[in-house]
Amino acid sequence: MLALMERIRAFEEQAILAAERKLVLGAIHPSIGQEGVAAGVVGALERTDALLSTHRGHGHTLAKGADARAMMRELLGRAGGCCGGKGGSMHIADFSVGMLGANGVVAANIVIAAGAAHAVKLRGETRVVACIFGDGAANRGTFLEGLNWARVFDLPLVFVCEDNRYSASTATVSVTGGEGPAARAASLGLPVTEVDGNDALATRAAAAEVVARVRAGGGPAYLHCRTYRQTGHTSADAAAYRPEGEAAAMATGDDPVARLRETLALAGEDGLEALHDAAQAEMRAALAEAEAAPWPDAASVYDDVQDVGSPALAAY
Amino acid sequence: MGRMTYLEAARAALAAAMRADARVWCLGEDLGRGGVFGQYKGMQAEFGPDRVVDTPISEACIMGAGLGAALMGTRPVVEMRFSDFALCAVDELVNQAAKARFMFGGQARVPMVVRQPIGMWRSSAAQHSQSLEAWYAHIPGLVVVCPSSPQDNHDLLAAAIACDDPVVYMEHKNLWGLEGEVDEGAAPVTLGKARRVTEGADVTVVSWSATVHAAAEAAAALAAEGIGAEVIDLRCLWPWDQAMVLDSVRRTGRLIVAHEAVAVGGFGAEVAATVAEHAGDALRAPVRRLGAPRSLIAYAPNLEDRLRVTAAMIADAARDVVGRVAA
Q1: What is d(CA B10, CA B18) in angstroms, rounded to the nearest whole number?
Q2: CA dist., res. B72 & res. A100, Å (int)
């Protein structure tokens, strides 16, 4: 688990570096500080389970088993990227490991997840669908529609709120009425579990329990993971809107990677430094390889739009 | 072969597809009781509530769920009740369903049909009467179908369900009761092929959906006057049959486009522009576009009627362009 979290952290650090070097051309939304949720929740899924993620989805995607090198190529828009360079960071996906896509629109994945789970039920499969969204998503209508739908049709769907306290650059609590997302989920009849998302082991345990219950036919569930976004909304956002010292205090006092490392060290585990070093080396190599990769074939911009009425047949 | 209404023909096509393929299912509001117009009547009894699904009034979730279920290998038919209500689900259709295959680099297919009944019928006012087909024709990734006859509503719905791309399927509410002979065993049709409704040497009239019937009526009146109007029913707006239209205009030298939707920014403008680009040298008269004024659809019958494109208007436009030919 620590190895995965070190890999996510290292991936994000290299991605930020790549953005600073103008190798990543569009916006990226780093998940530094949120690795406990990715490793804890996604680690509780089977490879055959489906996952829908957010614009801040690198960690979830790595945790589901996607290839870091193909992901880094995608961030750089290069050939061999997991989406052929067409999606970039915000549309990263790897269907081969059940990762059905990050999403550039907040809360849009909730209703898509409802349909994915509906198909699982319709086909009588034992798969579970997990849908991760942020605290800001609870203020979109699709949160109500999707959670209600899952309850009404009793779907095998785990809703995961990755609560990092910020809706882009606005404190979520300042724009959220009532008692917040978990209370809203409870009001729709979903069992709610809350966990400290920066405690990766506790998150894993909570997620495993929830996923098992859903897989056993218990219907949809809601898991609320409290965490913290240590970076700005994007890698280019200095996040001056946050209270002075808040991010620094979280990074030093409540960092999920450091916490797990400390817990394992106290338990006498060794080789922890080697995990860190291996992750750093892997992601440095992934960036170097991506940087050396060619651009996609320009003609591929006409591919995979549609079969019927393909623009490749009548490109203006 | 048998007589069927436009509504019954689509129902027969959907039921046949569901019998043939367990992956096909449909979801929408009030489907259990047959749908708001009866398009699904009796289907829940045959296929059960798991495949003919009564949903909450949650258009965004109906559309989004269709997409999610398509990504997982099923072939959903999504019912939006009125195309006007699909506007509650534009993110799910335009930002998500239309883009999923491309954004994810071809990892996904979205074999989903979105039924969006369009058009004016009577006194349904501004939120139950629109024809917004041009919006969807503008969106890469979507196929747009607008059937005008019972046979086409059978064949095109079958083709839409068989299609691996998301299809916006726009039936006209005023045509539900239209009867015609329907061959349920007809050969599969290709989406994007138009139908020549009448032949004529003097003017090409391009139309689709309910306005095709006005155009055919105009053509009959014009024929009695010795004017040959070639009426083309596009049937699909994306892809659309440019070849048939260009071929016709090269023969007639005159083009009228006629549709119920607002003329400004309507799909008729796309047809006119394409003809200007590729057959402009064949034009013997200016192109005429007939569509609704850029006003809102009203409740009172006389107000509503002011917005309609009628057979008389099409015939007048044809007489006009034919009369304008330089001697």
Answers
A1: 12
A2: 9
Of B317, B86, B82, nearest to B214 by C-alpha is: B317
Which residues of chain B fall short of a pLDDT of 50?
325-327
For residue B40 the two structure tokens come to: 């699904």
> Where does the pLDDT of residue A314 fall: very low under 50, low under 70, confident under 90, or very high at 90 and above?
low
3-class DSSP assignment, residue B272: helix
Residue A296 token pair: 């996609």
- What interface predicted TM-score (ipTM) does this complex get? 0.96
Q: How many residues in total does chain A contain? A: 316
Cβ B108–A84 below 8 Å, yes or no?
no
DSSP code, position B110: -
The confidence score (pLDDT) of residue B324 equals 59
Separation between Cα atoms, residue A56 and residue A84, nearest integer Å: 19
Q: How many angstroms separate the CA atoms of B24 and B14, rounded?
A: 9
Q: Is B172 helix (H, G, I), strand (E, B) or coil?
A: strand
**DSSP conformational letter for B118:** B
Task: Give residue for tokens 């850029």.
Answer: B294
Q: How far apart are CA A130 and CA A45, in angstroms?
A: 8
Distance of CA A25 to the CA centre of its chain: 20
Closest CB to A101 among B56, B104, B141: B104
The minimum CA-CA distance between A269 and chain B, rounded to whole Å, is 40
The per-residue pLDDT for B1 is 76
The pTM (predicted TM-score) of the whole model is 0.97
In the annotation, is B128 catalytic?
A: yes
pLDDT at B326: 43
- The helix/strand/coil state of A163 is strand
**A227: closest CA among A186, A194, A190?**
A194
